[in-house]
Every structure is written in C-alpha cells, then in structure tokens.
Amino acid sequence: xxKKAKVGFISLGCPKxxxxxxxxxxxxxxxxxxxxxxxxxxDVIIINTCAFIESAKHESIExxxxxxxxxxxxxxxxxxxxxxxxxxxxxxxxxxxxxxxAMLGVGSIDKITEAVESVLKGKRYSSFEDKNTCPLGGARFxxxxxxTAYLKIAEGCDNRCTYCSIPDIRGKFRSRTIEDVVNEAKTxxxxxxxxxxxxxxxxxxxxxxxYGKYSLTELIRRLSAETKSAYFRLLYxxxxxxxxxxxxxxxxxxxxxxxxxxxxxHINEDILRRMNRRGGKKAITDAIAxxxxxxxxxVLRTTVICGFPGETEEQFEELCRFIREAKFDKxxxxxxxxxxxxxxxxxxxxxxEQVKQDRADIVMATQAEVSAExxxxxxxxxxxxxxxxxxVVAETxxxxxxxxxxxxxxxxxxxxxxxxxxxxxxxxxxxxxxxYDLFGEKV
Length: 443
Description:
It is built from 14 helices and 19 strands. Helix 10 links the parallel strand 11 and strand 12. Helix 13 runs parallel beside helix 14.
C-alpha cells in the first residue's frame, strides 16, 4: 500500500527551507511514492514549517490545524511536521497537537521515508538527529519554475544576534564544499535553470569554517567557470563581511547579477550594539559606499527591524533619515518579534505591539517614496526581463528584471505578441511605474 500512497507537501518560510523540502520530495519519489499537489487526494501530508518569528509560528500552526480537517473528513491518514517548528517546539507539538503523527527535526530530513512509512502503518514517529553533524545538501526535486533555482551553500549560523533564534534552531554555521556546490549548480543548469540564487543564513561567511577564510568570491569564480551560462544572485549577505574582493567580483563578473541582499536591521549605533550586529554603523555605510563605488548601478536590498527593545523616537527617526539618504532599491521592514530564549526577550524597554507596527508602517511609507523616485528614473529604459508567466485577465506578460529577486521584489508587466514561454529573456521598454512594479512593452 505504502509504495502507491500519495504524498502532499506544504513548504513554509524561506528559500533555505524550500531546498530542504525539495530534498525530502526527491527521497520520497525515489522510494516510489506519488507526489500530489491536491491536498484532498493525499494519504500523507508533510508540512515543512518555519518558526523564526511569531507570525511564522502562527502560520505553521494554522496550516497544521487546517490540514487536520482532512484527517477527519477525507482520506488523509497522517500529518508529518518537519522544519523549524518541529525542531524548536518538539515536545510541545507532540503533546499539544494530537493531529500530528510524525515529527522530524532539521537534522533528520533524510528520515522522511521512514516517517511516512510509520504514519501509513498507524504508528507515531519522531527523529531529532544532531543538526550539527547531519549531511548537507542532497539530490532534490526542484519545485521552482525550471528557469530559477535556489542553491543553499551553507547551513546554520554563529552570529548570535540577540533577537534571533536561528542558531539554536539550525545549529552552528557549516559550509558545503566548493565541489559539492559546483556539482549541484551544474545539475540545476542542466535542468534548465537560467538563474541560480545562492542562499545561506550568512552567505558572505561561506567557507570560513572549511577553508579558514571567507571563500564566497572563490566559490562564485568556480561556479562561473564550471557552468555554461546561468546567472548567479546573492541573498543574505552581512555588511561586515562585504570584502573588496567581493565588490571587485560584482564589478567584473558578467555572470554575477549586479544585485545584493544585505540586511542591516538598523543604523543607530546603540541599537546595533544591543542587537550584537558586527561592525556597527561604520560597517554598513562602508559596505554601501564600496559596493556603489565598484558597481554604480548595483541594486541594493535590505531589511530593518522596528521597535527593538529600548528604541527611542530619536533612534527610530535616525533610521528613517538613513533610509531616505541611503536610497536602497528594495527594503522590507518588520516589527520586532520577542522570541523566547533569546537575549533580547529579557531586555528592558520592550515596546508596545502597536507602536512597533506603526513604526514598520512608517518605514515602508518612507521606502515607498524612495522606490517611486528610483522607478521614475527607469522610464524609457530597456531592461532584460525573464518571463514568469501570462496574466489572462489583464492580457499581459509578467516577469522580473535582473534587479528583482523572485517572491520578494517587484514585477515587470509588459505587452507582447502571444506565444512567449516562461523562462525566456526578452527586452522590455519601461513606459509606466505603479508602486513597486514596472510596466512596459517588448521591443
């Protein structure tokens, strides 16, 4: 029975989590299971959860409870919970959520076949192997559009920012070898990937544990030399680790997109110190200056936290001024989430939830003005756009420029004769801007 069983997947959280989902998918396919996108048809559903901040935990729990309805009312035999929620709250979930039949910690995703087998036999199952010694990488069943793929180059984090639970959930920072990463990139390109997005908790720290030095630039050079034509995009780069060598590579390497995601979290020196952010304000301003000096048209994306414990109105206004001055191309703002067992959870000066949200809203309104100014300068420009699909209602194609990462940045909508396929790169002349999106026509 089990070899003919249908398995459904729900993957929550970040792209790093998605790559784990894809590893589990591949293992189940190799074991003979059928993967279904229709939850109502599934015999078992795996929910790969996120638990980074409070809203992510709520989303994970809501998904579990929603799927539990299928156990009572349809053919679903079991629910397997994996990922960060399982790792962080293993005892609470098993005790308080009888709907859950199996749990795997972040070090046990290679046990997914055993978990599904047990659930189909009516037995509860759990495995929480050492997240600091488990294998990294693994063959994947890629679920993103075939022209785009994520490539996780390292796992875990040692930075110990005071607001963050990731080191406890995901373990110590561990890089994959250059050879391992390059081999996976070759596979992704052979499957059709034109854009490969490098991800880790701290991408810029890549290789320090294996090679005794930051080795991201060396990795990029090897990737470029040993693949044929795919572009590479960098996410999750820390400002204190933006080296001159990396700036030079961004300038010189035509295969490395002129885009970098560099979360700064704040700009006030006291707040950064309380956050345990390395390098402080100088590291941030210096990284921005060196990146823009090397690549004047580089697209900079960042994220900030609003309402960190003790943040005064003056410190918040300093952040807003910096956002107006720095003119990031892309920016996301999040209200501080008080996470248990993190140092910041016990800091004095905890701020009211509504005040935190209001500050995040003000930051996003500030960034909207910056983005409108930046987008206005794109009117009349011709951009390379990778097609994502066609909107039949609006009768227009949509895609992304090289300055837009999937799922987090804006889109380019454009008119063109029918018959174009997803993944094709076309030239689009920009004729209009609306909020964070661009509109134009194929040339």
